[in-house]
Design a protein that fits this description.
The chain is an alpha+beta fold. It has four helices and seven strands, in the order H-E-H-E-E-E-H-E-H-E-E. Helices cover 30% and strands 28% of the residues. The radius of gyration is 15 Å and the shape is globular. It comes from Chryseobacterium camelliae.
């Protein structure tokens, strides 16, 4: 993705309720803010579903070509994150979506930025997985236009998982 586009995109991502900056992190595994958010995400997922979800997501996956990891900063503190990584030349996957601040639109801002980036990477579809028990996430993705699909990849045969896909237009 070209640097001017990502800078334009991120500079125009604002929140109505608080001053937020969204920043692309080129090496998320080396960033302490990212590691802290992922630790908090893992704890949250353990509370919701009994599993952290960390087995299927390596932070180094977001440093490869046609991948992206974003954090939302408020007063220089990381408050939300999300990333996308390639599955194929036409399909990417959203991973590690999380926000410390609930119900103020941060998840939607991160997801929107990831979808815009996915289009710039020429992906045709964006997909993801969450746990059926994670009612808030399931409702969030349905509201954002994602459709439930058959489980794919490592989620095939896993009854606790629900997979989604959205065509990028």
């Amino acid at each position: 993705m070209n640097a001017p586009f990502i800078n334009y995109l991120l500079s125009n991502m604002t929140s109505i309720k608080m001053d937020i900056t969204i920043k692309a992190i080129s090496r998320p595994s080396d960033d302490n803010r990212v590691r802290d958010l992922i630790h908090r995400l893992n704890d949250s997922l353990i509370t919701i579903s009994g599993e952290s979800g960390s087995k299927g997501a390596n932070l180094d996956d977001f440093a490869q070509e046609n991948a992206l990891f974003l954090i939302a900063l408020h007063d220089d503190q990381a408050v939300a994150c999300g990333g996308l990584r390639p599955i194929s030349s036409e399909v990417c996957e959203v991973k590690r979506m999380f926000s410390l601040k609930k119900n103020i639109g941060l998840g939607g801002k991160i997801l929107s930025a990831l979808e815009m980036a996915a289009k710039q990477f020429d992906y045709k579809y964006i997909c993801l997985e969450t746990r059926k028990k994670n009612d808030n996430a399931v409702k969030f993705y349905l509201k954002k236009g994602y459709e439930v699909i058959e489980n794919y990849g490592i989620y095939i045969g896993r009854e606790e998982a629900v997979c989604f896909r959205k065509e990028l237009k």
